[in-house]
Amino acid sequence: MPPDGLLDCRGVTVRFGGVLALDEVDFSARDRAVTSIIGPNGAGKTTLLNAISGVVPLAGGGISLSGRDLSQSPPHIRARAGVVRTFQNLEIFTNMSALENVMTGCHCQVRYSVLDSLLKTPRYFAGERKARAKAMDCLEFVGLADSAQTPAGDLPFGRQRLLELARALAARPGILLLDEPAAGLNMKETRVLGGLIRRIRDEQGVAVVLVEHDMDLVMGISDQITVLAFGQVIAKGAPLEVQKDPEVIAAYLGADDRD
Amino acid sequence: MDSASLLQFLISGLTVGSTYGLTALGFTIIFNTTGIINFAQGEFVMLGGMLSVFFMRIAGLDEASAIVLAVAAVTLAGALIERFTIRPVKDASIINLIIITIGVSIFIRGLAMLAWGKDTFALPPFSGDAPIALFGAVVMPQSIWVLAISLLILSGLKAFFSGTIYGKGMLACAQDKKAAYLVGISVERMVLLSFMISGLVGAVGGAILAPITLTSFDVGVILGLKGFAACILGGLGNPFGAAAGGLILGVLESFGAGLLSSAYKDAFAFIILLLLLFVRPSGLFGTREAKRV
Amino acid sequence: MQGLKKDLLLTGAFLSALCLAPWVLPSGYYLTVLIMCCLNAMTVVGLNLLLGYAGQISLGHAAFYGLAAYTTAILTTTLGLPVALGMLAGVGLAALVAFVIGIPTLKLSGNYLAMATLGFGVIVYIFLNETVGLTGGPSGFTGIPRLNAAGLTLSSDRSYYYLTAAVLCAVVLLSLNLIRSRLGRALRALHTSEKAAQAVGIDIARYKLFIFVLSAAFAGAAGVLYAHYLTFIAPSSFGFLFSVELLVMVVLGGMASVWGSVTGAFFLTALPEFLRMFENVEIIIYGAILILCMMFLPRGLAGGVSSLAVRLRGRARPGEDDHAS
Amino acid sequence: MKLKGLVLALAMAFLVSACSTEPESVKIGAVLSATGPASFLGEPEKNTMQMLQEEINAKGGVLGKKLEIVIYDDETDVNKCVLAAKKLLDKDGVVAVAGPSVSGNTLAIIKFFEEAKIPLVSCAASEKIVTPVNAWVFNTPQLDRHAVTRIMLDAKAKGLNNIAIITVSNGFGQSGRAVLQELLPPNGFNLVADEVYGPKDTDMTAQLTKIKAAGADAIICWGTNPGPAVVARNRVQLGIDTPLYMSHGVASKKFIELAGPAAEGIMLPAGRLIVADQIPDDNPQKPLLLSYAKAYTEKYNAPVSTFGGHGWDSIKLIVEAINMGKSAKPADIRDNLEKIKGFVGTGGVFNYSPENHNGLDENAFVMVVIKDGDWKIMD
Q1: Is B159 an 8 Å CB contact of chain D?
Q2: Contacts with A113 from chain C: Cβ below 8 Å
Q3: Is CATH 3.40.50.2300 correct for D144-270?
Q4: Residue C35: half-sphere exposure toward Cβ, Cα within 13 Å
Q5: CATH number for region D25-142+286-361
Q6: Cα pseudo-dihedral B136, B138, B144, B150, rounded to 10
Q7: How much is the ipTM here?
Q8: What is the nearest CA distance from C272 to chain B, expressed in angstroms?
Q9: DSSP-assigned states of every residue in A11-70
Q10: In chain D, what residues touch B265 (CB-CB under 8 Å)?
Q11: Contact criterion met (CB < 8 Å) for A93 and C181
């Protein structure tokens, strides 16, 4: 195991029926770094995120975070261990306000028992105050503090993306998995997002794994890039190295035909 | 237990099962187009039987024309229900629409009680009631009618859904209303059609079953319950599954009554159903996860 | 924390209204109607926690109501245990059964979950009906004693009514408290997106099970109170139609609204009494009212009242009150 | 809008209830299952009571006052029945109550009558209603025990010893099943099969196939329409020629209609009402039964059933008790009900006493057989 590997995937294999979606993928992400996963459509990028976050079961290989094996853990255990993610198709809680969304993110950070909830004990009030404060911090961080009381479903699309990010931050990630966070955003919003991701890495010291199609964003903020094609890793390295890799160029050219 | 008795249980189970299967088919059609579980489906079956009796007795028609008229009337009723209770609120959530169909079923039951009273009625069997002997067991001619017509309806539906543009359009509506609309399918017309077809299927079922099961204004409740169970057993949205689910449920009950205990036969059938769901969470022949509520 | 004060105030006002009711409606008949309303409301509030907040349907809640009623009936009548103990055991058994069947059942979703809970209800009904030696079978279980608590016999309808009203208010307050907590947020989260809920560390299976058990316990509480009020129970009161009726009360009252559930339960329980004068057309009118309410009040009675209130105040107030009241 | 409507409905309900309080009448209540699964009982009972009210008032009423019968429908539902009974007791202030139609509902409300000290004359048959005797509760139908006794006498005479029973899994079937299980073995019969069917079942082939295999000499079926009609049809379809006895629960023309040719030869104990024209002229019940049947058929254009007769008996017994004591006070009515002797009703000749609140014996039944689509008294 490399000493700097915070998240470590070895030989991750995922099958859907007869289809081999991921074929012995090795992937690692360092602490306090942005690691991007790129690749043509259908390369298995989201599947890899799903495998890491526990949404799809592994057919082989292992996943560990800071040396702790998570290969068999259900998604919520991985989340508690620090693997927190966002979704390509927004999964915000539309039946809550923005603030409540982020407070839900604090679920495992601010704890009190069922009895405290039912009977409104002082512990409940203390916990709620703490959760609220923490959620407000996260909202402020992404620039949504002014929309705290807005029903989440009423927010414009770009702000819903930010809300999801805030909710993920509230869950105090050890590693944050972002699944195409820039999809559907305009240039300006994408720039803001890029800045946020940098700040997450630099100010909060959280490792980020980024799956993204927007190459400007990827090349601008990544410390390390892994390229997937047809369920296999075809290249790894710093942005500039990867950009020059002939295999990567070939994969993208081939993919462009299909697009 | 001798083999003649076992065969008799099977025949009895298939006969009862076809009543569930026919109701289940109606559920499938509306579910496939709208995602609604139509609680008034049992009432369609009831209306088919009761209207046939009514047209025969009061209007003095012969049985065949009475049944044709009854089926036409229930098809129309299906259209009216869609037009007046479902279409005006088509943006409502599925659970609200389901509650509306519960209201409709109560309403129809009330009307039927007021119109025809609370008595039970019988319809004469189509081709006499001389039992046919079969390896020591007996089959009623009406049971053969029921099984044959059920098969006919089933294959008709199969052909309709996979072979015609309307059928495919209806399936498309269930998958994604907006997309169906975008490719030029009139969602409203498809939903209307689905209510009419399931009215028709229900009414045919009600009419051909009435000679065996007898009919009254309140038979719809239990048929709806068992029909829904049959649907789920077979896997929602699959007409073949619905029909098969009905037959399986009927056979389970019949063997439960014959071999275990007649008092617990329904419990037996439902326990099997639950166990099956725990192993196969979307029914025997179900493919997609139908999460709607 | 403003919502909390509002909850307390509303619950207090509701309790006082319930307590004043016997003076306004002096006959014992109205008391009985009100007791039935309160009992149904308890069950419906619990069912709404499950359905409206957590998004998990149950068509088997009548079974929990019935199981609890029969448990206390058998313990107190056949075995002669104290009533209070029987009641506790009844609620406990309902919760325990919910726990046991909830583990496999709650893995299902949507219509399949509806069927599984419905099937469970039917099975319980059949056992209540057929185990004649234990339950008295279809003709019912007679001679259940009234409640004696701390040397105080709650034999008069009025004192029993106060007890029922108090329990209902406790159920309402507990539910409101629950919704405004991290638990409530977890439930609403898994309703909208199980994936996202898991992604922030929420153990969805555990919360589903918890709320299933809690709502079964509320139904059980109503069940034991019912048994010791009527002193007679029969399986026909706990059939699948009652489960459906409870579901209708939830939706008609308003999904994800505790006060909506109370309104829905009171409305639909008392409605047939108002319709009595229509005799044979009663059922038709009942059906029509149900259809019209669902067509024109898509968010239920609670939604109708709150949008009326909004219109009266002339402004909309977004925020957590809309969701958690 | 909604609120206004509710207030209006409330106000209306108050108004209606206020108007119905009329001091110059004797008010009797009735809770009947006019709708729901037991409507075959409740509807004729309700019709009969309405007919009786007109008839009695046309003849000058009760104690010189108008007779008013307040009838509520309980929809065969326990909770609705409790509410209806409460309304009669607490709001309408009736002096006595007739009904309910089914045993479960009766058992559910007995307690309230004991508390309110108002007599209840039930139209339901269960023995639990009158044993142990509750001071305030009476019933009018013949008991299951009496019906079973008649069937056993007939079976014994024919030498049928191995009996199979098939009963419906509701209150009616359950109480019949209990009595059959209790009485058959000690009277020298073998119970060779004990099958059950659901009230809404539409096929009893499986149960009958089992009974056929059990080698019974006779089958006894205990249920109410439409189940027994299905049993009769399935029996013929399966080619079973074992004699079939039914309970008195099918003693209405509807059964013969539903079972069709399969009804031929079926035997059952029944009240004399359905065979009124066949009973000897010296039977004290004959004139009453003929006139009741005629009046009912004329008024409602429907065949008379013994169930309506329970309604007749309940109301007439209450009225008789009022007339005996010249008092419409509930306690007096109760006391006088216990003193009624030799009262000729549709169900038989009633002899109430402090120990017997049913008042009938097995002579209330005759055995009838279905022949050529009609009832025929057996010798």
Answers
A1: no
A2: none
A3: yes
A4: 28
A5: 3.40.50.2300
A6: -90
A7: 0.91
A8: 13
A9: EEEEEETTEEEEEEEEEEEETTSEEEEE-STTSSHHHHHHHHHTSS--SEEEEEETTEE-
A10: 198, 206
A11: no
Domain with CATH 3.40.50.2300 in chain D: 25-142+286-361, 144-270
Those of residues 218-237 in C touching chain B at CB distance below 8 A are none
**Which run of H or E residues covers position A192?**
helix A187-202
- E strand or H helix that includes residue D66: strand D66-73
Check: CATH 3.40.50 for C2-274?
no
Fold held by A1-82+173-259:
Rossmann fold (3.40.50)
- In this complex, is the C-beta atom of D194 within 8 Å of any C-beta atom belonging to chain C? no
> Which of C112, C248, C252 is nearest residue B282 as measured by Cβ atoms?
C112
Tokens of C38: 């309160």
**CA proximity to A204, closest of A163, A174, A234:** A174
Containing C105, the helix (H) or strand (E) segment is helix C83-105
Q: What whole-number distance in Å separates Cα of residue B127 and Cα of residue B125?
A: 6
DSSP-derived letter for residue A211 is E
For chain A, give every domain's residue range.
Answer: 1-82+173-259, 92-170
Min Cα–Cα distance to chain B from D200, Å = 7
- Cα dist. D162→C278, D152, D243 in Å? 51, 12, 11
A70-83, pLDDT tens digit by residue?
999 999 999 999 99
Q: Are C200 and A168 in contact (CB under 8 A)?
A: yes
Provide the residue-wise pLDDT of chain B in tens; the chain has 293 residues: 688 889 999 999 999 999 999 999 999 999 988 888 999 999 999 999 999 999 998 888 899 999 999 999 999 999 999 999 999 987 788 889 999 999 999 999 999 999 998 888 989 999 888 888 888 888 999 999 998 999 999 999 888 888 888 888 888 887 777 788 887 788 888 899 999 999 999 999 999 999 988 899 989 999 999 999 999 999 888 888 999 999 999 999 999 999 988 889 999 999 999 999 999 888 888 765 433 33
Mutation target to probe the C interface, by most C beta carbons within 10 A, among B87, B93, B277 is: B277
Residue D153 phi/psi, 5° resolution?
A: -60, -45
Ramachandran area for residue B267 (φ above 0: left; ψ -120 to 50: alpha; else beta)? alpha
Question: What's the CATH number where B155 sits?
Answer: 1.10.3470
Rg value, chain D, Cα: 21
Q: H or E element: which one contains B29?
A: helix B3-34
Alpha-carbon radius of gyration of chain C: 19
Q: Residue for token digits 């009675």?
A: C301
Closest-CA distance of chain C to residue D106, Å: 10
pTM: 0.92
